[in-house]
Amino acid sequence: MTPTGLAGCFSAAVEGVLDEGVLHRILVDLDLGLDRVFGQKGKAFLRERIGGFNHDARFRPWIVVVDLDRDAECPAALVEDWLPQPAHLMCFRVAVRELESWLLADTEALAGFLGIRRILIPAGPDQLDDPKQVLVSLAAKARRADIRRDLVPRPASGRSIGPGYTSRMLEFVQDHWRPAAAEINSDSLRRCRARLRDLGRKLS
């Protein structure tokens, strides 16, 4: 039984601010709510606390999203390492290899946002070794100077992303990105949405 008033409203834990924006967009698209959000302090923070999140998921719906990065060969291996016995209200999902792969998967929306040709965006974003850097490289071709300035690091800055990367990508997620279109090109996103949809039906 789901406690009264919690049906369809998830607690969440994420690596960063952009991850929260993406998760919120996914849930809204599925007519599900987002209650409390924990984390935004990187992956190690989530790893240390995953047991506590899972304990709470015995009583209320949870979603935890992490990047695969280079921490395991595949999502299943990371899940087995982190959470071999997820609670029945836990949705623990792994973005392959980074959350940016889910954004790249909506090729039409991203091409329009950056002002580039759609054909320049690689197919199969889940197979990319470094989706974030692919996105930054695409941004270097953007028609608008302000987008290039925000997303692309300045020469000799020592940074991998531009100074306005998070805020600019949040703009894309909130105003342009379409999770239903993106899942066609990203199996890890499709699986995430399917699990959330399934939990939403159980909680309604």
Description:
The chain is α/β, with parallel strands linked by helices. 47% of the residues lie in helices and 12% in strands. It has helices at residues 17-29, 43-56, 75-82, 100-104, 107-114, 131-139, 145-151, 165-175, 179-182, 187-203; strands at residues 9-14, 33-39, 62-67, 90-95. Helix 1 (17-29) runs parallel beside helix 8. The chain has a 4-stranded parallel sheet with strand order 2-1-3-4, sandwiched between helices. The longest helix is centred in the last third of the chain and has 17 residues, at 187-203. It folds into 2 domains: 9-96 and 186-203; 101-180, no CATH class.
Give a quick summary of the entry.
The protein has ten helices and four strands.
Residue runs with pLDDT of under 50 for 5 or more positions: 1-7
- Write down the domain tally: 2
* Spatial strand sequence of the major β-sheet: 2-1-3-4
Strand count, sense and closure of the main sheet? 4 strands, parallel
Radius of gyration, taken over Cα atoms and rounded to an integer in Å: 17 Å
Taken in chain order, the helices and strands follow as EHEHEHEHHHHHHH
What structural class should be given to the helix and strand makeup?
alpha/beta
Q: State mean pLDDT (0 to 100 scale).
A: 94
Number of helices: 10
Our estimate of the beta-strand percent is 5-15%
- Number of strand elements: 4
Gap between N and C termini, in Å?
Answer: 11 Å
Proportion of residues in helical segments:
40-55%
Q: Give the overall shape.
A: globular
